[in-house]
Give the backbone structure.
Amino acid sequence: MAATTERYFYGTGRRKTAVARVRLYPGSGEILINGKGYLDVFTRGSHQMKVLAPLKATAMEGKYNVQAKVAGGGVTGWAGAVSHGIARAIVASDDGLKPVLKRQKLLTRDSREKERKKVGLKRARKAPQYTKR
């Protein structure tokens, strides 16, 4: 896909520590994540559905080529970040689709992050086993 001079719509998506920079180009529906097909990057069906959710909600499947660069986090974070980025890019292309995406909570950034480890504990909340004697 040589889409360097074409007009595109941009959206940034975030989830946990993953950040996705998404570009939507008018096209046939090809989805590239870091230069690879999305089916190669996201092998789980739930991740694939998450990525396609904003396109299905707005009936834009096959109308846009998606090009995303994702960094940080793991595969689940990537899927959430790409989904968020696609939803924001769709709103950039057509503001009238915002209520549809908002209703399905695709424009809301998932704010859940990993809780930090506390001093004296083994993890964020797990305490060492208590011994009486």
The chain has four helices and five strands. The chain has a mean pLDDT of 93.
